[in-house]
Fold this protein.
Amino acid sequence: MENNLRKQLLYRSIHRGCKETDFLIGEFVKVKLDALSNQEVQGFSQLLEEDDLQIYDWILGKDVVPEVYSLMVNEIREFHKI
């Protein structure tokens, strides 16, 4: 089951509908997904439920990141050196 969830997250990360978010999240997940703990995978899954433009603004620092997503968004920022 866990492997299926990771495959679904990879797909959902790359096919978001917004090219910018597809790139920012997708490239991060391609490299880091296997290293995420089960708890991080669950948090990442929850993050993907949010709106693309909101996630994009959080990653670029245009809006305040909710505490629940702050660690994951910071990891994505660090990955892209933003």
Notes: Residues 19-32 form the longest helix (14 residues).
